[in-house]
């Protein structure tokens, strides 16, 4: 199985959600980051996943500037592999692993190569000959309805039905918009909320993170609660 993790924007909690999904997927899981930017500014996403989930990881391209991958590459005059090469490497990993989780960069249409290829293109190509699940990590707060519905519609335009929405970095106390959006997000998108990752989860010790991850991903139930 190949699982694609995308977000409605940068900073929505995609990496921590990826780590939690890797824990839930169990042994035989590898997490792939096709393109990582901003090297040297923060802990790389793939390192965060490895630390929290304790799973095998792979990173295809590293770029220095904290920009979209194609922008960071063009700024430095660097050629990065096209989407087709990423897909070939992921297919090869899928031959020997139970689950391959692919974390995108930013949103679904962020360019991952200098030829204009996106995570949506990658997911579409992989789905031709592999079962592919796509999870959309989104915010709970004001503004999320538009961003989430646009992302879901882009996936459906390629005949990819999202497997679920994941609420990233959810605060302990919800404001009015966040509380309403628990019902509004599934209503406007037709996609269920399947997980809620609490704000600060990425700061937990790995043992605590792994112990709690399953409860965050056990399927969203009415009467919001995270622990």
Reconstruct the topology from this structure.
Elements: E1 2-7, H1 14-25, E2 29-36, H2 45-53, E3 56-62, H3 69-76, H4 83-96, E4 99-107, H5 119-126, E5 132-138, H6 144-156, E6 164-170, H7 176-189, E7 193-198, H8 206-216
Parallel strand pairs: 1-4, 1-5, 2-3, 2-4, 5-6, 6-7
Helix pairs in contact: 1-2, 1-8, 4-5, 6-7
Mean pLDDT equals: 90
SSE pattern, N- to C-terminal: EHEHEHHEHEHEHEH
Largest sheet, order of strands side by side? 3-2-4-1-5-6-7
Low-confidence stretches: 220-227
The end-to-end span amounts to 29 Å
**Quantity of strands, as a count:** 7
Helix content: 25-40%
Q: Rough shape?
A: globular
Broad structural category: alpha/beta
Number of helices: 8
Give the percentage of residues in beta strands. Answer: 15-25%
User: Which radius of gyration do the C-alpha atoms yield?
Assistant: 17 Å
General description of the model:
It is a single chain. β2, α2 (45-53) and β3 form a beta-alpha-beta unit. The protein has 227 residues and is an alpha/beta fold. 47% of the residues are buried. Mean pLDDT is 90; it is low at 220-227. It has a 7-stranded parallel beta sheet, with helices on both faces. It contains 8 helices and 7 strands.
List the defining traits of the structure above.
seven-stranded parallel sheet; 227 residues; 8 helices; alpha/beta; 39% helix; disordered C terminus
Task: Give the gist of this structure.
Helix content is 39%, strand content 22%. The protein is an alpha/beta fold and 227 residues long.
């Amino acid at each position: 199985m190949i699982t694609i993790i995308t977000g409605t924007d940068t900073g929505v909690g995609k990496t921590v959600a990826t780590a939690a999904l890797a824990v839930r997927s169990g042994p035989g899981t590898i997490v792939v980051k096709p393109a990582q930017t901003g090297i040297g500014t923060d802990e790389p996403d793939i390192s965060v996943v490895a630390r929290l989930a304790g799973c095998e990881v792979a990173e295809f391209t590293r770029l220095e500037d904290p920009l979209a991958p194609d922008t960071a590459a063009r700024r430095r005059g660097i050629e990065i592999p096209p989407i087709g090469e990423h897909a070939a490497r992921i297919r090869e990993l899928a031959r020997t692993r139970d689950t391959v989780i692919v974390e995108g960069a930013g949103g679904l249409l962020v360019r991952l190569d200098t030829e204009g290829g996106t995570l949506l293109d990658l997911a579409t190509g992989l789905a031709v000959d592999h079962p592919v699940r796509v999870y959309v990590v989104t915010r709970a707060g004001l503004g999320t309805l538009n961003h989430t519905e646009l992302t879901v519609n882009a996936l459906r335009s390629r005949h990819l039905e999202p497997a679920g929405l994941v609420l990233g970095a959810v605060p302990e106390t919800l404001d009015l918009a966040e509380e309403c959006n628990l019902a509004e997000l599934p209503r406007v998108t037709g996609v269920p909320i399947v997980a809620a990752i609490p704000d600060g989860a990425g700061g937990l010790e790995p043992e605590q993170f792994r112990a709690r991850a399953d409860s965050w991903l056990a399927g969203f139930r009415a009467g919001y609660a995270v622990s």
